[in-house]
Structures are given as structure tokens and as C-alpha cells.
Amino acid sequence: MRATWRWFGPQDPMTIDWIRQSGATSIEASLSHLPPGCLWEADAIDELKRLVQIAPAGQTPLEWDTLGGIAIHDDIKLGRQSSARLTANFQETVRRLAQAGVRRINFTVMPLLDWVRTGLDARLESGAEALGFDAVDFAVFDIHLLKRPGAEEEIDPELAAAARRRHLETPAQRWQELLTMLTRGLPGGPGQYGSGEFHSLLDAYQKVGTEAYRQNLIEFLGEVARTCEAEGAVFAIHPDDPPIPLCGLPRIASTLEDLARIFDGVSSPRAGMIFCSGSLASRRDNVLTDFIDRFGQRIFYAHPRRIRFRDEFGSFTEAEHLGGTGAFDLHDVLTLLMAEEARRRRQGIADWEIPYRADHACRILYDQERADFVPGYTPIGLVKAMAELRGMIHAIGKSS
């Protein structure tokens, strides 16, 4: 397995020079400041590639070879009239990226709310701070902040009752902060929506429904796959995070069956997935080994990370990679991914490696004092997580 690093550009507190010291061999990056649906200019792509490759004399330059997300326009997801034009823009952007050497295209298929957390600083027993998803807080958001019609009836009665109590007992400032964070979006998402726009899109997605949404995305992904085939690229979709129902929105990448339906609809070998162990495992009935057994050949990228459940409602926090309590053992996951690499080598597959990166790391040491951090991507926590992953991978390789 080959270590990579998610870089958020020149404003990222983790510099390219520091990333080079972490053991990463290449960069996952994006022009995420550009609005969804626009055509990425070749000059902008080349400039980001140049920034990645800058290295002092005597040091090995890094390569930008993986796209760290590109938003799919809401009109594509909703099947609106402008979908064909926006899909063509997406395809041309993929074409330009591939021609610049960025041939692994990662993105999500989640509508409106991208990856969701309700807290950025859950305190672990070690003193480290972790991202967390509190199911009760999210129910407060859905029922009492958004005031979504029918929300309370859709939610488990015990969870809805807990949300009512918490909404009354918690200061209003906390709820304003949560509302802002969830409608703004976390890194990699489509960006911030105004209140009116958010509610309008929420209503539109609920009206389109899951099956129509799935078909819209399958048609779109089929077009992207054709471009990837022509350009020698691949694309990998990230599972829903968390892979559970949220706000009545369509969810089409939450379960084994969800992914099977996508790949049945888009059979191209250029269509694949990001194996994010933390995302998939945050749904209790998902079994990680099942995903590797069934879709091993379609795993084009990996986010090996661990979560820990916190209550009976499915609340969770990120967990330490080693030791402590977690929903699964990362060593076992890495062993299975390396076995998939070995299978590819035996079959003579040229691109047999599964690139990976540390993801959603804990916030530790003096990073806890920093204000200029990207949630889940603080420098020291990521370096620690990367070292732990590299150590496990090295040990597994030596013992196999």
C-alpha cells in the first residue's frame, strides 16, 4: 500500500515540505474553492501541480496524482434540464486533470449534506480531541432547527424524545453553531448554502426520492466512466458518511446492496470506490470484510480509520488507530487490503497498489491550541496516524 496525503492548498497549515517528511509519496488535492459545475481551467490545474512539485535542492518532489474531491452540481443529482451541460463540464475537467497526470478522481455522491459531524472536539480518554457524530444532536437539528415536516415521525421514538429533552436543556448558542456548521459543510463538501437555498434543495431532494436520485447518478457516472476510459483514469466514490438516513435525503452509497446497484449500473472497470473503513463501519449492520470480498477489484483508494460507538442510537467518535476501544481492528482491515493487492499482483494487474491516506485524525499536542486547522486534518495528529498506518503495513508485509 502506498501512502498519500490530503493537501488543502497554500492555506493549509501543513506545508508541502512537512508532508514530504511524513512518508507520503504523492498528494491528493483539489481546486475546491471553485463553484460546482464550472469548468476547471487547465492553467489553474497546472498551477496547483506546480505548487505540489516545488522542492528544495536534493529533496524528492511530490506528485499530485489524486483528485481530492470535485462537487457534483445539484442540478445533475436532481436530473434538471442543465444536467447535460454540467455533466459535459465535469467530463472536460476530468479530461484536463488526466492530461495533467491526475488520473485518480475521488468524489462523493451524497446530496446536500456531505460528510456530517456534529462536533469537532470530542475529548477522548487520552486527552486527544476527535470528530464526533451525536445522533441526538443531529435529531435536534432535523426536528427542532430545520423543522423538517415529518421528521419527528420518521425518527425512532426514543431518539426523538431524547432530542426534545436535549433541545430544551442546551443553550441556544450551541444550536446556532450546529446549524451553521451543518449548512456550511465540512471540508470536501459543496460549500455553504444560504438558509433559503438549503431548505429549497432539501425539499427538492425529498421530492425526487431515492430511486430517481440513484438513476440520475448512475447515468452521470456512466458518462464519467467513458471519459476515464478514454483518458486512462479511474474514479472512486466515497461511501455515505455516516451511511444512515439523514433528513429524509436520498442515500445511495450506504450499504453493500447500494454499491452493488451502482456498479451493476456502471459496469466499467474504471468505476470504483474509496474503501473508508470508518464511514462504512459507522452503520452497525455493515460488515467490512463483505465490502472487500465483493468489491475488492474496485477499491481504488483507502481511508483506513477507526470509529467508536458511544450510545445505543449509533452516536460515534473517531477512535485512536492503536489501543483503546474501537468498533474494529485496523490491523485486520489492512491485512485484507494487502491481500487484495497480492491477488492483483498474481493476476498481473499493472496498477495493483491501493493508495491510502490518514483521515480524520485526532487533534493532539499543540495543535489543540491552533485556530487555523482543517477539522480532521491537523498536522501532528495526521503525522501520528500516518506513522501508525505505515508501521502496521510494514509489519504485515514482513510477516506475510
Structural key phrases:
400 residues; alpha/beta; eight-stranded parallel β-sheet; four-stranded antiparallel β-sheet; 14 helices; 12 strands
Any overview of this molecule?
The strands form 2 sheets. The protein has an 8-stranded parallel β-sheet with strand order 9-8-7-4-3-2-1-12. Helix 13 (330-346) crosses helix 14. The chain is of the alpha/beta class. It has 14 helices and 12 strands. The chain has helices spanning 16-21, 42-53, 74-77, 83-99, 135-145, 151-154, 157-169, 172-184, 195-231, 256-265, 277-281, 288-295, 330-346, 379-399; strands at residues 2-6, 26-29, 63-68, 104-108, 119-123, 129-133, 234-238, 271-276, 299-303, 306-309, 316-319, 355-356. The model has no long low-confidence stretch (mean pLDDT 94). Strand 1, helix 1 and strand 2 form a beta-alpha-beta unit. The radius of gyration is 20 Å and the shape is globular.
Describe the structure concisely:
The chain is of the alpha/beta class and 400 residues long.
Shape: globular
Beta strand %: 5-15%
**How far is it from the N-terminal to the C-terminal residue, by CA?**
14 Å
User: C-alpha Rg, in Å?
Assistant: 20 Å
Number of helices: 14
Structural class: alpha/beta
User: Could you tell me the mean pLDDT?
Assistant: 94
Percent in helix: 40-55%
Low-pLDDT parts are: none
The SSE order reads: EHEHEHHEEEHHHHHEHEHHEEEHEH
Number of strands: 12
Question: Could you describe the largest sheet, including whether it forms a barrel?
Answer: 8 strands, parallel
Give the strand line-up of the largest sheet. 9-8-7-4-3-2-1-12
